[in-house]
Amino acid sequence: MFELFQLRCFVALAEELHFGRAAARLFMTQPPLSRQIQLLEHAVGVRLLERSTRSVALTTAGRSFYLNARQLLKQADQAATEARRIDKGQAGRVIFGFTAVAGYELIPDLLAAARTALPEIDIVLKEMVSLEQAAALSSNLIDLGFTRPLSAQSPFSKALLLSEPLLLAVHRAHPLANKEGIEPADLRSEPLIMHSPDEGKYFYNLITALLTAASIDPPHAQYLEQNHTILSMVRKSLGVAIVPASAGHLQIPDVVLKPLWDSAIRAEIYLAWRADSHNPALETVRRFALQHCMQRT
Predict the structure, then answer these.
(1) Is the dihedral of CA 205, 209, 212, 216 positive or negative?
(2) What is the per-residue pLDDT for 181?
(3) Under a CB-based contact definition with an 8 Å cutoff, are residues 119 and 85 in contact?
(4) Which among 23, 24, 77, 200 counts the fewest CB atoms within 10 Å?
(5) What is the DSSP string of the chain?
(6) CB 225 within 8 A of CB 199
(7) What is the pLDDT of residues 89-133, one digit of tens each?
(8) pLDDT tens for residues 233-251?
(9) Residue 263: pLDDT band by 50, 70, 90 thresholds?
């Protein structure tokens, strides 16, 4: 088999058609250049050049081989460049896990910005709840997670991306839709469409803490998992609901969001990752995500 160096010698000679000029271009002398051409022709099994004491010319086979040799050298150079870019984190593939709430605006906004700023990094999205993201990070199935707060014992590195208030969602025709602010007494007898204590555990615990601190226990109409389903129930006047402010991006018709009496209890989204990851592109995307999210706030 021939070597890349032999191809480079041949391409230089094919373009210069002069051993002296080709050798100077390659920073070598003529005898080693001539030897490399002989070895190449022996490996290919055909004569690629017609030589005389006065001229050098490509054979018909040589002209065809020249075009393919240039393409092979170009691909080899591209492969080396790509490998260096991946090693430096300038190219590659990063897999994002994200919760449904992050998918309302945060993820689409970040992905659109990344396509412009990091065009050579392929970002793959996987929607999953926070517990699934923790398991996926542990198994290296995802590189980064947009997750709700993880336990204090979590082994992952993390940074706060978003902190948002909880709001009351009511039908536009509901009497509470016209109030400036919602007080605990307003919810004492209102049927509450609540996040599930299993699939929606984070919001269930957050909202339960809010209600307990206000000493109210409104009747629960339904337990559901996703905010878009909860708001659809509110739209049908089946109850009211407490949701994160980002749920407003869903723009469910006839549903309005009202501020609550306590803005100290907030829903948070973190960026989580493994500090021992071997994916060079991870650090590039992580820095970009943090900077982008800080600019949004």
Answers:
(1) negative
(2) 84
(3) no
(4) 77
(5) ---HHHHHHHHHHHHH--HHHHHHHTTS-HHHHHHHHHHHHHHHTS--EEE-SS-EEE-HHHHHHHHHHHHHHHHHHHHHHHHHHHHTTSSEEEEEEE-TTTTTTHHHHHHHHHHHH-TTEEEEEEE--HHHHHHHHHTTS-SEEEESPPPTT--SEEEEEEEEEEEEEEETTSGGGG-SS--GGGGTTS-EEEE-TTTTHHHHHHHHHHHHHTT--PPEEEEES-HHHHHHHHHTTS-BEEEEGGGGGG--TTEEEEE-S--SSEEEEEEEE-TT---HHHHHHHHHHHHHHHHH-
(6) yes
(7) 666 889 999 888 787 788 888 889 988 888 888 889 999 888 889
(8) 999 999 999 999 988 888 8
(9) confident
Kindly state the tokens that stand for 104: 């309302």
Q: What angle, rounded to 10 degrees, do the helices at 4-16 and 30-44 form?
A: 110
CA distance 78 to 85: 10
Torsion of CA 275, 276, 279, 282, to 10 degrees: 0
Question: Does residue 296 surpass a pLDDT of 70?
Answer: no
Q: What per-residue confidence (pLDDT) applies to 265?
A: 85
The amino acid present at 54, given as its one-letter code, is R
